[in-house]
Amino acid sequence: MAMRMRPGEEGLYSPLYEHENCGVGFVAHLKGRESRAIVTGAQELLIRMTHRGAVGAEKNTGDGAGILTGVPHEFFKRIAKAEIGIELPELGSYAAGVVFLPPEELLRNKCKAYFETVLIEYGIKKLGWRTVPRNNSMVGPGALDSEPSMEQIFLGAPEGMDSQEFERKLFIVRKHVANALRGNAEYDPEHFFYVVSLSSRILVYKGMLMPEQLFDYYLDLQSEDFSSHLAMVHSRFSTNTFPSWDRAQPLRFMSHNGEINTLRGNMNKMRSREGLLASPLFGGDLSKSFPINQPDQSDSGNFDNVLELLLMSGYELPEAVMMMIPEAWQRHPSMDQKKKDMYEYFSNKMEPWDGPASVAFSDGTYIGAVLDRNGLRPSRYYITDDDLVIMASEVGVFDVPPEKILEKGRLQPGRMFLVNFKEGRIVDDSELKSFYANARPYGQWLEEQKITLENLTTPEIVPDLDRNTILPRLRTFGFTLEHLHEILKPMAELGKEPLGSMGNDAPLAVLSDKPRMLYDYFKQLFAQVTNPPIDSIRESVIMSLKAYIGPERNLLEITPAHAHRLLLEQPVLTNSELAQLKYMDYRGWKTKTIDTTYSAEGGAGELTKALGRITTEASNAILEGYSLVILSDREAGPSRIPLSALMAVGAVHHHLVKNHERTQIGIIIESGEPREVHHFCTLVGYGADGINPYLAFEAMWMMDEDGEIEGQISRQRIEKDYLTAIEYGMQKVFGKMGISTLESYKGAQIFEALGLATEVIERCFVGTSSRIEGAGFAELAEEAKRRHELGYPQGNPSVGGELVNPGDYSVRYGGEKHMWDPESIANLQIGVRQNSRYHYNLFAAQQNQRSTEQFTLRGLVKFKSGTPVPIDEVESVESIMRRFVTGAMSFGSISQEAHETLAVAMNRIGAKSNTGEGGELRERYKPLPNGDSKRSAIKQVASGRFGVTIEYLVNADEIQIKMAQGAKPGEGGELPGNKVFEVIAKTRHSTPGVGLISPPPHHDIYSIEDLAQLIFDLKNANPRARISVKLVSEVGVGTIAAGVAKAHADHILISGHDGGTGASPLTGIKHAGLPWELGLSETHQTLVMNDLRSRVVLQTDGQIKTGRDLLIAALLGAEEYGVATGALISVGCIMMRKCQKNTCPVGVATQDEKLRAKFTGKPEHVINFIRFIAEDARELMAQLGFRSVDEMIGRVDMLETDRDVLSWKSKGLDLSRMLALPRKDLAPSGTICCIPQDHGLERVLDRELISLSKEAIENAKPVQIHLPIKNTDRAVGTMLSSEISRKYGLDGLPDSTIKAKFTGHGGQTFGGWLARGVEFVLEGDSNDYVGKGLSGGTLVIYPPKQAKFKAEENIIIGNVAFYGAIQGRAFIRGVAAERFCVRNSGVEVVIEGVGDHGCEYMTGGRAIILGTTGRNFAAGMSGGIAYVWDPSGEFVGKVNTEMVVPEVVSDTEDFEYIESMIREHIEKTGSTRGKDLLDSWNAEKRHFYKVVSPLYQRILDQQRRKELVHG
Amino acid sequence: MGKPTGFMEIDRKKVTWKKPAERVKNFLEFQVEHDLQTREEQGARCMDCGVPFCQSSYGCPIHNLIPEWNDLIYHGKWDEAYHRLRQTNNFPEFTGRVCPAPCESACVLGIHEPAVTIKDNEAAIIDRAYENGLIVPNPPKIRTGKKVAVIGSGPAGLSAADELNHAGHWVTVFERADRLGGLLMYGIPNMKLDKNLVQKRCELMVQEGVVFRTGVSVGQDISAAELLAEFDRVLVCTGATKPRDLPIPGRKLKGVHFAMDFLTANTRSLLDSSLKDGQYISAKGKKVIVIGGGDTGNDCIGTSVRHGARSVLNFELLPKPAEERTDEFPWPTYPRLLKMDYGHQEALETYGRDPREWSITTKEFIGDENGNLKALKTVRVQWSKEPGERPTFIEVPGSEEIWEADQVFLAMGFLGPEQPLLESLAIEIDPRSNVKAEYGRFQTSHERIFSAGDCRRGQSLVVWAINEGRGAAREVDKSLLGYSNLPG
User: Fold this and answer.
1) Does the distance separating the beta carbons of A823 and B142 come in below 8 Å?
2) How far is A744 from chain B (nearest CA, A)?
3) Domain end call among B412, B430, B451
4) Which candidate from A798, A833, A1146 shows the least CB-CB separation from B486?
5) pLDDT tens for residues A835-877?
6) Cβ atoms < 10 Å from Cβ of A736
7) Does the beta-carbon distance from B51 to A833 stay under 8 Å?
8) Closest Cα to residue A847, out of A1079, A1078, A1129, A1099?
9) A1138, B47: Cβ pair inside 8 Å?
10) Are B72 and B177 contained in the same domain?
11) Range of the domain at B337
12) Would the ipTM clear 0.90, i.e. be above it?
């Protein structure tokens, strides 16, 4: 594509949403000895991780690759002399670096001249410029168009300046020059100028290249004398393909594989800190480097900026990294206290940069790497006997003879790996951290300095329930009866967040005629694809709500006073805690209370006047020496309207950020508004440090007085339960975005605004996306006024007016309107049952009208008139019907009857139904005698992997990877044991009565390259099926989709927020996700702009129910359409919204036998519904002049905003970005799917395996195979298993029919979905996802025979082994990384050690672990058994005992089983650990623990008794 | 919701009726309320639907908060249940007795199971509220000084007057009859709706400040001009009181009466003198035929039985309805189903046959030489329906029959409001002779005159009259103050 510069915002595309994930690695010599081999080794390493990067639409344009090395002195000396005739001084007294410059000579010279003047200013001598020799002949046109000119600069250190000082000067020079030049209209209008690196110690070459192009491109790298003691390489996978030479990595000090979720908050805080930043090292120069975070950078770039600042100001590299990416110390009971103290002290200076990360860093004297606190990125290393260290995202990327290897290890969550070249050794994590933890008396400082609530006295009078005024106040603050009964009551009674079901069909806040709370305008963002959501429940060890608040000090100093801050254990404050803060006068801390109400008398201007007043008062409070401000709306009453607490905190926060003051004061909210989880999240997300929801407390106390709270509970207990529920809910919301701590969530603004005008965003929510404009201050003031009038009406109140309003979760008279109103349900049901188009027309008319009566975005547009065509020229109804799918609804959430009815219906019309999460009964694969089929064409693969066997995958036409679901994006699910009936357990390969948990993330998708891997896996499992990825609409989904297209998905579904069947927490239903119109449009636009649209089919869903809806979806870019709620209503659903209770009175969403008998739906009903929509659409197509659906795709020019339907509130909406026509010139290959993806299946190792196994597959004759294997051989065995399963089903072949022995390094997903009858033996090691989905096969893995290291102490397989494994066996001689056996359903495995989160979510099978485990073992493990050998006595402390009990093994049967498995393990792998154990069995057997859920054990015992009786 | 599985465990229990033989002896109400526990359990059957069809346009026109008060009943919170009920319904004691309960036919539970006893629950709430002394005068705190005249004291007029009074306006209700209540007083017999309830309600309204002027006929006793001069707004709620006639030969014969004349006189005499003054049309010893199969027809049957008629028959033009829902009336639409009402039951018990004849039309009243009714000549009809068309009928040749009868009550519905009043107010009427005023706005062609109830919408249910009365009150209030706190 022809573009010199990355595009800015266009339509809904914005460069802000770009994500990147990557492969990263390094090779270094421990003693710092330079060699050419290190550089070439790194090259090899980079190339072998090519599959972790990506290419865009052009085959030869990569996303970026680069290398960081030490300064190649010999090489530089030679070429400096030869090329520019200068003699370089000795190593260390000069610096060098590559500079990207504008291609135009004139501009280039101006830039260089400016650079040189700055050098003079700082007294640095220019030694010379040199053109960087390059060969761009192999580079793709996209990269070529934006290729900068490149020169290398050599600078001499001023006489006598020490090395550190020189580096600091270089830092200031570089920042100064870059700030001045980049993007400057006079020098560099097209943003070419960029200093790649500038240092006397390290050097970076990088570009928008593919890994194998890097060395070809930079001729310097090919020089034989270009050698280094370290070489760090990076290959980038960006979610879009826009040209970007500068965004390639390594950056100046680091390479990053991951994503920083909290970036916006980190950046705002850094900006705030600039006000206090000072360092004697810089003198007055420091401010020249501001802004610290340069604009227009990726998250990694921002991280690098801050890391660099810390380094330059005197922090040591490892220390700075520890501060930015701390371990999960808060909930770590066994962590060394000194280390904890250090982290706690650091938390006073900086919040974590949170998100999945593997960061490799180097300043030339150290090279190291660190993983995020949850270990969400793979990083493996080898250490050799000739002092080489090789670290990379994968093993097998650098050839080392096995006998030379001393150690094979992995980075562990939060741990650091560091090579100290000066000392010539590896400093291990505990030594390193203990060194830094002991560097200063952090514990003592904290002890002396910190303030806690216990230090503060409680005033005598604390505000209580005021019954006399509560009702008008409840009304003024927008409380409804539903808030009281459905939200507060369950929280007060059970300490739990309430559930709801059937999605959200109420209007968007900006489209509602009701006065809606400001919170409703904010939608929570959530992680999908590029980073994983976190299970805040099962992995709570890494979560924390603890935070220090109040004034921070100069980041660049380390003093005891930095710890003089107030510690809050969690952000929600009781009335007495608030009173403590309000009236405190403790060691210099005082609090200023600011009234946030305004006069009800004045006009709309009062609100903005109040904003001005409170922001000024907040700034003044800093000057007056206050440590906290309380923004209080206690003054609200008949004559005072409360400002929304969210608006107040946003305005104050951003005002202070703008003035670089935010970190100098804490902000506390005292408000009647907040009541539900979302409110607290938004308040914290926009900067609140503490929140006192006094009216929510009063409401609960009132209910308690009225006997509406069940049980005898004290007020304190109600408060406590409520706080528990809010905390739980907040952590869940953090987890959705992959954030673990309140500190980093605070101010991170993980929201999109929907329907707010720019004036509001600019003043209160700077940086938040608000893509369709909407309500401004005047409209929000009107809403506040209307609410206030509800509370304090003029004149007489109506009878019953003293009661609160109904709500809007369910249809209630007087409450919010809903799309699914009774008339629509009735007309649709009558229509489909009586095949009455008349009733459908009534239904459609009502729906379309509801749409325009301010319910949906599509309601706000109208068709432009076209030239009608005769209807018989339009694509047939039947053909349109084939474009439909029914939504993914699991068998388990809906009844068998309902599920099968949908399948039969869709099969009859050649459309597709979806299994949903939870597998499919094997019986359904066979057609029925009457020709019908109950087989769902789409097989969903969700995070729980229930029933995802090789047979299931083989029986698919489409395999859909569910990244998120509309009703609860970013959340997992849970099927409680009482709903796991016999047939459901059978389908899911689990145990009846044992609960099942779907984790929030797919544990094999933590990043975009992981998704690419899963797509590859599934394509191998069924090459005939198309692979679909289901995403949920949110801002940035377009760029994610571009990444997904680059990851070779065939099909992308953009799901709207409003759909959703089945149960979810109310927070998720109401406040997460966006309408499909926005997501679809953004996706289509972004794909077109990236020329990726031609490779994927786009589908959308979310309350699509009329022909008009279909047309709008097509015009916005969708080729296919999903219906779910509509389909369920067709078969009898009446929107009871009780799916979570198993009491569906029409037999749709229940497993209760009696209720299921009431199901009366028929396939005809669904078919009629879809036919009606298709007929309706066809008629509209004829009117508009379209002969086929294909012609309509993306024809957004046929839509325009219907200004007539906008209301007083919505009149400011602007849909132009949604209706923008993307630039077709950027998409030469087409704007509709027309080019199949290249999945690279032709070259896989399985082709050879299959041909070698021909006899076995065809005639079940045993075969034996020997093959070498390397890390690029991925998903080995999967396609072979697919062939077997296609023929033999899940039963497969007789055991060991195919025996394959591999030597080398297994690529990802080694043995994935391996079928019964296949036994793989691997001599070597393997990467992540070993045995994923194992479907009956056997895996044996052991180290090379000639290896000298101890197998049981070294890592042999990567993360997430045996994920979702169904059945089979495995024997692994060595240690596995994190999340071993996650969600194992039935595999039996022996291994010699595992990392954190072992056996997580396991539901069946057995794991025998002959070695240590990591933390959080058996979290969410509802079934299966783990036996762990623990001679040290440390194991029990690592078990997450929420569901399981670890007990010493005592049962003979257990011993017999363990012993026989170990015996087999020894036979198959030669395990010495196994042999040692059996040799002293009687002594060792007492060290075995058995970990099992008591419920599971009970059910096993029952089954055994039954067998005994019936046996 | 209190009991998510209530509907799976508890059966529907309607209130019981006293035995026909017993109840026909007087004009007292005959429903026997359940004990407290049974009633509370009936509340637990409500499923608290996500989409409560009972409140929808298929169900309750005044959108009673049914799931809420059902839940409150189950929890024994009777006082709060009353407050919730009162929020949407001014007169639950009327609707809880006389409403045909479209809420129940729209009840979601009714798809597969007998519906929730919504109507009985409603009556139980209000009756208990009376017993427990919750119904006390609650006059408005602020008086606006505005004056509103309401013409007609039927359910529309009363509910509007109640609402407007609560909004602080001075309200005067004009009623041409001697007693208040309109149709509630004289159109519905006492055994179905105890007149004490109507009186008690009106007395309460008086205590709250409403002025009632009975025996005043607007247009005659007070002119339209006077009314408009004295009041800021006038609300016309005169009902649809013009009965449909049967203009066939013999219509003038003695013994042929409009049902309303029969029922009105009966109730008046009952209240004045316990029927001792003889000022009513007695069916004692008569062979009675009631023409018209609706509620009024049924009331005529019940009244005739109580008088001691010799026989009672009931003719209906429409065919005999189905006993269960058919595709013609799919859920949640209001089905026309065969229903054994109290009168039918009493006639059956008393005379040994179901009194109803279906698909029958009367061609002639046959009299004796003295001009007294002697018999009816009828013919059977055959109904048919084309899809999308209204059903039509033809007479069946050769199906003529003669039925002995000396008393006939014409209960064939109402044609609209009586016109003289409307003429004197000089407001426009619509093609069906109803007052012309848009639903929702309720304003007539005269900007200070509003109209609600059957005189505007045509003959309908009590609950629709309340709906209109409330809606019109809100509009009147808004036109007086510029805003309204009335819920409408």
Assistant:
1) no
2) 38
3) B412
4) A798
5) 999 999 999 999 998 888 878 999 999 999 999 999 999 999 9
6) 28
7) no
8) A1129
9) yes
10) no
11) 245-412
12) yes
